[in-house]
Design a protein that fits this description.
By secondary structure, the protein is of the alpha+beta class. It is about 45% helix and about 25% strand. An 8-stranded mixed β-barrel has the order 23-24-26-27-28-29-30-31. It has a 5-stranded antiparallel β-sheet with strand order 2-1-5-4-3, with helices on both faces. A 5-stranded antiparallel β-sheet has the order 7-6-10-9-8. The longest helix is centred in the N-terminal third of the chain and has 82 residues. The N and C termini lie far apart (about 160 Å).
Length: about 850
């Protein structure tokens, strides 16, 4: 009887346990369901926020492109206004055609008093703007800026005004150019259909002023935008900020470089509607599932017995698995979670492991089994390990790398961790990947550092600098770049050899690192150029202090194996945010600042100067135009005669080049020859001039019976860097020009030193039968011995000497000496710059052979026939 009672009691206990288990399972199921619902709602919320931010970014990019186009139109309008001498009429037919299809209107130009000077539609009267906020903003600003202001009507913003200041040549405020863009043009009407229902798009200034807002029909666009402090972001905004009383996910993004922020607000209720429907369906299914669980509870007893049997078999299998893994190089662990007082998992206990796993923990297997992870690792390491194990426990698996440092170990090791959840436990596999990680780290270091100096290289700079700028922007801090170029490195490298040059660069890197602050970064970007990044609560004056320390650090000589070397530095400084808000701009402006040091004497430092940059930019533009002009032949030749003072006959003409610029008109040589010399374009230009002269001579020879010679000016670079005799010989042969009809004018600087190259070139020219002239004599450093050695035919005295002969006795004496010297050397004398009849008379009395100047003849175009030059000049 007692047996039966015991059996019944045991059965009742099993039944009770089954029903209690069913209840527990149901509760757990509901907990999991509600947890999943919460997680899915959180994910849906995050997705909606991401959508709002993505749409805001797309809207910001469109606004940025549109505003950039409008700004370009403003700049072109201002340029046309200034280029026309302030005579541009916007109500003309040409201006109407230009702006007829433009997506804006209200194009107008205002003077410095706010009055409209000209407008595209003069019938639309515009009020005087002198008191308007946008006009005051331009009048008070010291820098050129784009101002965007709303135009309100009927309580709403109907349009935006975009404007820029007009400056005089000396930088004073002289008015405003403006255009007006309809609100619809910037509220994304072109793709509103892509937006979720009840979405709102808006555009605001950086100061939080709402400019325009729009929504689909039936939705109120009235809204109070949240304040923003970052370039982009998003947040859930309450219903009290919107006119229709609905909460929204608001994303915002800065519109490029413009002071505008684009907002997109996605309706929360609309976005969450699919999720709410799915949640309600899941809850209904859960209720039905709960009923089924309790309905089949009586069947669980049989499964419990089988489960007990399977558990015993699983234990045996686990033991066999552990024994099989002992020969592996991987560490294997079985871990059980240890819940804390609040129910969350606070620790893990080692249920089983293999010998290799115990060795990785610096423990024996016997002592490791049963230990908790909190006793194996330091607090910071334990927190990282627990974070990984919780992920595996929550998601069911984990695969990644982690740096381990057990309490018993001196150093850390990198492990490849694979974790799988099974029956409430975690099966862990560890593989030591420290050597491969070290190899990858070495490769990364090699790719980001200069092999010679060990400094970070250009690749590292382009990776690090944008992050540093973003940190400075987020923290409202300054950042500076020092662009450093070594003065004298090339000379040292060429004279002492490349090995010494490499040694010198290593010394330079060491001195730079000692000169800067401990937290500054020194980067070698190539050759003898370095960059220093200054950050961490930087004051701009700190950049000057660091620059002075670097200059001082280069005062001592460099002691090398091959001897000693002296180097200096030229340092250019640019700063964020004043000189640029991105890495390429900061690097460019620091380079420009360094170049300004180079051009003014080297060995110093300078901050970026926009005026110098503008000057350099204009010079580069002129150089670009000059290259194009040479390629497309935009040059014409004018000819100025030389007159024999005894017979008043023309003896020769000098070829003078002019640039027929498509925009600026006819340009004199003083506006482009110096730049051509500086850039080396003078070589191509000189050859082009020679071709045009020979072409003209060939035409004159066909039409005239008697043609006087033409003298061609040759620059020092042409003479010293090319085979000038071969060039003349080739071009004369091409056009059939006799040598007697060509003369070469050389400046004194072209012949400095009387080198073998100069003597050889002069000899070849004379061998061709071409006369040689010394141009602008008296402005260089020629000696009598040099003139005699080179055996020139004609000496052209600079106009500075000619101008003195009618004013001072000393001028006459000096000119007489030049004539006497030239005649003694067998050369004819030409006086340049003859401006008056009195000068002409004096020159004749001084036995000067020839004269040239405006009094004798102005330069003439090639269309004037050569026969006119043969007539007496009077």
């Amino acid at each position: 009887m007692s047996r039966l009672t015991g059996s019944v009691g045991a059965n009742l206990n099993v039944v009770a346990a089954c029903f209690l288990s069913a209840l527990f399972v149901s509760l757990v199921g509901w907990a999991v369901l509600l947890g999943n619902v919460a997680a899915e709602r959180k994910a849906a919320s995050a997705d909606t926020m991401h959508l709002a931010r993505t749409l805001a970014q797309a809207y910001a990019e469109q606004v940025g492109r549109a505003v950039n186009a409008y700004d370009l139109a403003l700049r072109q309008l201002r340029y046309g206004w200034l280029l026309s001498g302030k005579s541009l009429a916007l109500d003309s037919a040409d201006a109407f055609d230009l702006y007829r299809n433009a997506p804006f209107g209200g194009v107008a130009i205002l003077d410095k008093n706010g009055a409209v000077v000209t407008a595209m539609r003069p019938e639309q009267a515009l009020p005087r703007a002198v008191g308007a906020a946008f006009f005051r903003a331009h009048a008070d600003a010291s820098v050129d800026q784009l101002v965007i202001s709303p135009i309100e009507g009927g309580g709403t913003v109907r349009a935006l005004r975009l404007s820029r200041a007009v400056k005089t040549g000396d930088g004073r405020f002289d008015g405003v150019v403006q255009l007006v863009v309809g609100a619809d043009e910037v509220t994304l009407n072109v793709f509103m259909h892509r937006f979720p229902p009840r979405a709102i798009v808006a555009l605001a200034r950086l100061d939080g002023k709402l400019l325009v807002a729009a929504a689909e029909p039936g939705t109120s666009a009235q809204s109070k935008l949240p304040p923003v402090t970052r370039r982009e972001g998003g947040m859930l905004v309450g219903a009290n900020r919107f006119g229709d009383g609905r909460a929204r996910y608001v994303g915002w993004h800065r519109a490029g470089r413009f002071p505008l922020v684009a907002f997109v607000a996605v309706d929360e209720a609309t976005a969450m509607a699919p999720f709410d429907a799915a949640r309600n369906a899941a809850i209904a299914h859960a209720r039905f599932g709960t009923l089924i669980v309790f309905g089949i509870a009586t069947l669980v007893m049989g499964f419990l017995l089988r489960l007990s049997w399977r558990k015993r078999e699983s234990a045996r299998t686990g033991e066999a698995y552990r024994m099989a893994t002992e020969g592996s190089n991987d560490g294997f662990f079985i871990l059980a979670s240890v819940p804390g007082s609040a129910g969350a998992v606070d620790d893990f206990e080692v249920v089983d492991c293999n010998e290799h796993g115990a060795m990785l923990c610096r423990q024996r297997r016997e002592t490791l089994i049963g230990r908790r992870f909190s006793s194996l690792y330091r607090d910071d390491m334990f927190a990282r390990v627990m974070a990984v194990l919780r992920i595996a426990l929550d998601t069911g698996a984990y695969d990644g790398e982690l740096e381990f440092q057990p309490r018993a170990a001196d150093g850390s090791r990198w492990m490849q961790v694979k974790a799988v959840r099974s029956d409430g436990k975690l099966a862990i596999t560890l593989r030591d990947v420290s050597e491969s990680k070290a190899h990858v780290a070495a490769l990364e270091h090699r790719g980001n550092h200069d092999a010679l100096t060990g400094l970070p290289n250009r690749h590292w700079l382009l990776w690090y600098l944008p992050q540093a700028i973003e940190r400075a922007r987020d923290g409202g801090q300054a950042l500076a770049l020092l662009f450093i170029d070594l003065d004298g490195f090339k000379a040292a490298n060429d004279s002492m050899g490349h090995a010494a040059g490499d040694e010198l660069l290593r010394h330079v890197a060491h001195r730079l690192q000692e000169a800067v602050r401990p937290h500054d970064h020194v980067v070698r970007i190539g050759g003898d150029e370095f960059v220093v990044i200054l950050e961490n609560h930087l004051r701009i004056e700190d950049a000057a202090i660091v620059a002075r320390r670097i200059l001082f650090a280069f005062k001592p000589k460099f002691k090398l194996l091959a001897g000693t070397a002296v180097l200096g530095t030229s340092i250019g400084i640019s700063s964020f945010p004043g000189d640029g808000d991105d890495a390429p701009t900061l690097l460019q402006n620091a380079d420009v600042a360094m170049y300004s040091v180079k051009t003014s004497g080297k060995g110093s430092f300078r901050f970026f100067d926009p005026a110098f940059y503008e000057s350099l930019r204009k010079e580069l533009e002129v150089e670009k135009d000059l290259r194009r002009a040479i390629d497309t032949d935009e040059f014409v030749i004018h000819y100025q005669p030389r007159m024999d003072l005894a017979s008043s006959r023309t003896t020769s003409v000098e070829a003078l080049v002019r640039w027929m610029h498509p925009v600026r008109g006819l340009l004199e040589p003083k506006e482009f020859i110096a730049l051509a010399e500086k850039t080396g374009l003078i070589v191509r230009l000189g050859e082009l001039v020679l071709v045009k002269v020979c072409e003209q001579l060939a035409q004159w020879l066909q039409k005239e019976g008697d043609v006087v010679p033409v003298s061609v000016n040759i620059s020092s670079r042409q003479f010293n860097e090319t085979d000038i005799a071969r060039i003349f010989s080739t071009i004369m042969a091409r056009y059939g020009i006799p040598p007697r009809l060509l003369e070469i004018e050389l400046t004194e600087s072209s012949m400095m030193g009387g080198s073998s190259h100069v003597l050889e070139s002069v000899s070849k020219i004379r061998g061709l039968g071409i006369k040689l002239l010394v141009d602008d004599f008296g402005t260089g450093y020629s000696s009598l011995a040099q003139l005699q050695l080179l055996d020139f035919d004609i000496l052209k005295v600079d106009k500075a000497f000619t101008s003195r002969i009618e004013h001072t006795e000393q001028g006459i004496i000096l000119f007489t000496a030049i004539v006497t010297m030239a005649h003694a050397l067998g050369m004819r004398v030409v006086a340049e710059g003859v401006e008056t009849i009195n000068q002409l008379k004096i020159l004749r009395e001084l036995s000067c052979d020839e004269g040239q100047g405006y009094y004798i003849s102005l330069p003439q175009s090639a269309t004037d026939m050569q026969s006119r030059l043969l007539a007496p000049a009077g």
